[in-house]
């Protein structure tokens, strides 16, 4: 029997456009899913890391003698035990696997212990004696470029200038502002963890929670002095990521201990160590000047941005480029002057986090649009619509937006949503909740709007691709398919999307997602809202090759049809180093929010009453997952608006725990009315547009705008704290 591909697809459920159950869903709900912290191996030992208590110091000596004497200790390693290159990094190889003669941030790894029990490893770690010559840390991002150089070449990681149109034009109405964004943590719930298993031939297998298997492998192999083929990585269960697992944490450390001892080594960070063990969102200081005519039309935007990269570069160069290229927001403006700087300091290293530079810029430019509206006597929505980008608009980089840009439509959708009911008399629905701080007295309501823009996929000429293998065989008399990639499932639902694509393309309902590992080609990072686009594109392309060989057959006997392919999106290009011009990005995503808040102006407490959103996703391959991404991104934006900040003093972290670093809970998240637009991008597989990051960008400024509307305060810094509202 033969069927056409269309007939095959129509007979199968769970394809694109539907919301099938996740293959790992039941296990996760029942608490039976195996995360990386659950890994176990016979005869394994435990690893621990000794970290610097100082943000900046010279190491004058390290004595491991007493640590080696602790019963149950198998190894104590320092930088001299790193057999390969003792430097790694995503863009610059500037971060040591283990510190040599200087530490540049509090928490920098200095030594490793391998022992028969985690408590034994900790006891031994405390017996390592390190002497320091403590130095004055560099902590101010605005002056860091002229301060003590922390790396050869100075403290400027990258400067991105953008120049478009006139640089000295004037305008009728001018508003200026200085804005600050605090350091936000990804706050994933599964701590850094992994298991390294040595092989008899000197190679190593690492089972790890990460975002990018192949880049991890390449950096690990270089540090171990091994060929890449002798370092094999398999993805373990990942309890969230949001950018915080894009850099190495304990990967090399576990492998070093395993190869040194000949035993499997497990490492799991506790929560405090996790705060020191991964990068965070860049704190930023941003200066903006907006000029407009009397009708509200933007004439020019000028901005100077500083992003604190902390002690090592991580992805700071790309974050700075995003902040710059997206720095005017989703608005048309002919005259632009942008200077964005990423700096080294002795603060904690900062790198990728959901929104990736666009969040910092978004808070500033949306605050400016509200200030401009007030100066013009216009509504915040009207001034945005007056300047809204559309398809065919030109970015500050000169790039033409060549797919849907429904900025005005998104704003109108959130503006037209019904308002929530008035202030409640139920204390559970008031600022402060069941702490019973108010029964409505001193509570004022405010409404705020914001819209944001985010690039999708990697940029600036990066060779961004993914690899997919699709295999079809007969199982119990029916066709069954298996899909294999190295693209990391970190909770976002890629495992479901891959099944849906195979079902749609091949008309085969039974689809198995094979473990993600480095035995197949690169899948790229699970970041930049790129995996559905790029790995989805690779799976779709592999299916096309398989389908051409199936030729409509529903019975292939003992034959196995197996195809592997790489898939790339259209090329981007580097920015001009002087003018910042160039087609740097693949695609743009847009989201808008309306926030309604109640503020207790006496105590400075805020309750977000509603947080409504409209977003264009191109095509909702899995509508339920799309809504989940919008809700999750909005929750992280809410956190940055009113509670989340890693607080540092002199480079030291003051709140490395979920007791003192607050994140939104189910009680903090309000109801969300969400409109999902499907305006296809003709350049993308199925017309899709990356979903995960845009809602994080517009949710923060919308909430702060609503608090401003309630209080009349300027509020130029996030997160907004009670003392910002009460003046105490």
Automatic annotation (TrEMBL):
Example of a GO MF term: oxidoreductase activity
Pfam family, one: MoCoBD_1
Coiled coil: none
Region: Disordered, residue numbers: 1-24
Domain Aldehyde oxidase/xanthine dehydrogenase a/b hammerhead: 30-136
InterPro entries assigned to the protein according to its UniProt record, in alphabetical order: Ald_Oxase/Xan_DH_a/b, Ald_Oxase/Xan_DH_a/b_sf, Ald_Oxase/xanthine_DH-like, AldOxase/xan_DH_MoCoBD1, AldOxase/xan_DH_MoCoBD2, AldOxase/xan_DH_Mopterin-bd_sf
Protein name listed in UniProt: CO or xanthine dehydrogenase, Mo-binding subunit
């Amino acid at each position: 029997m033969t069927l056409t591909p269309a007939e095959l697809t129509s007979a199968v459920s769970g394809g694109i456009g539907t919301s099938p159950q996740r293959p790992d869903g039941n296990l996760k709900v029942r608490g039976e899913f195996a995360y990386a912290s659950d890994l176990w191996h016979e005869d394994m030992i435990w690893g621990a890391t000794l970290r610097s208590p100082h943000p900046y110091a010279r190491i004058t000596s390290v004595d491991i003698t007493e640590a080696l004497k602790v019963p149950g200790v198998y190894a104590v390693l320092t930088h001299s035990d790193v057999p390969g290159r003792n430097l790694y990094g995503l863009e610059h190889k500037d971060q040591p696997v283990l510190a040599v003669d200087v530490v540049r941030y509090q928490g920098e790894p200095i030594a490793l212990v391998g022992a028969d029990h985690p408590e034994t490893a900790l006891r031994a770690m405390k017996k390592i004696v390190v002497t320091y010559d403590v130095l004055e840390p560099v902590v101010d991002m605005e002056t860091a470029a002229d301060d003590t150089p922390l790396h050869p070449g100075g403290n400027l990681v990258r400067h991105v200038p953008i120049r478009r149109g006139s640089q000295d034009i004037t305008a009728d109405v001018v508003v200026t502002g200085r804005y600050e964004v605090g350091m936000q943590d990804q706050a994933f719930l599964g701590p850094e963890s992994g298991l390294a298993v040595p092989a008899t031939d000197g190679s190593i297998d690492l089972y790890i929670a990460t975002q990018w298997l192949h880049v991890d492998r390449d950096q690990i192999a270089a540090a171990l002095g091994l060929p890449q083929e002798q370092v094999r990585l398999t993805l373990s269960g990942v309890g969230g990521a949001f950018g915080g697992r894009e850099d190495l944490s304990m990967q090399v450390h576990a492998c070093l201990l395993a190869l040194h001892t000949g035993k499997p080594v497990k490492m799991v960070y506790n929560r405090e160590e996790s705060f020191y063990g991964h990068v965070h969102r860049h704190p930023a200081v941003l200066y903006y000047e907006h000029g407009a005519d009397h009708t509200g039309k933007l004439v020019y935007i000028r901005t100077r941005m500083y992003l604190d990269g902390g002690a090592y570069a991580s992805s700071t160069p790309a974050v700075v480029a995003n902040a710059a290229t997206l720095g005017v927001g989703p608005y048309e403006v002919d005259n632009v002057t942008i200077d964005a700087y990423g700096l080294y300091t002795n603060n904690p290293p900062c790198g990728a986090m959901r929104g990736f530079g666009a969040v910092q810029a978004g808070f500033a430019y949306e605050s400016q649009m509200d200030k401009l509206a007030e100066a013009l006597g216009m509504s915040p929505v009207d001034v945005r619509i007056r300047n809204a980008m559309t398809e065919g608009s030109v970015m500050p980089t000169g790039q033409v937006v060549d797919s849907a840009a429904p900025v005005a439509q998104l704003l109108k959708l959130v503006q037209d949503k019904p308002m929530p009911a008035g202030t409640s008399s139920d204390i559970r629905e008031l600022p402060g909740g069941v702490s019973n701080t108010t029964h409505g007295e001193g509570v004022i309501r405010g409404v705020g709007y914001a819209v944001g823009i985010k690039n999708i996929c990697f940029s600036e000429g990066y060779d961004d691709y993914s690899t997919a293998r699709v295999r079809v065989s007969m199982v119990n008399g029916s066709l069954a398919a298996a899909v294999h990639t190295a693209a990391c499932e970190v909770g976002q639902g890629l495992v479901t999307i891959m099944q849906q694509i195979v079902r749609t393309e091949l008309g085969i309902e039974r689809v198995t997602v094979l473990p993600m590992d480095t035995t197949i080609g690169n899948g790229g990072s699970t970041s930049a809202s790129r995996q559905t686009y790029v790995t989805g594109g690779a799976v779709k392309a592999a299916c096309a090759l398989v389908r051409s060989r199936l030729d409509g057959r529903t019975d292939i006997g003992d034959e196995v049809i197996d195809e592997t392919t790489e898939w790339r999106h259209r090329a981007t290009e580097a920015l001009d180093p002087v003018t910042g011009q160039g087609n740097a990005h693949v695609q743009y995503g847009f989201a808008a929010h309306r926030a309604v808040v109640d503020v207790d102006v006496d105590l400075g407490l805020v309750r977000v009453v509603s947080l409504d959103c409209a977003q264009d996703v191109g095509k909702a391959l899995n509508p339920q997952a799309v809504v989940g991404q919008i809700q999750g991104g909005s929750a992280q934006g809410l956190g940055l608006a009113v509670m989340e900040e890693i607080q540092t003093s002199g480079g030291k972290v003051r709140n490395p725990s979920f007791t003192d670093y607050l994140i939104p809970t189910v009680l903090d998240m309000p109801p969300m009315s969400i409109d999902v637009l499907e305006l296809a991008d003709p350049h993308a597989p199925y017309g899709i547009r990356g979903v995960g990051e845009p809602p994080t960008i517009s949710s923060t400024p919308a909430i702060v705008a609503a608090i401003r509307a309630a209080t009349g305060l300027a509020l130029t810094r996030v997160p907004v704290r009670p003392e910002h509202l009460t003046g105490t």
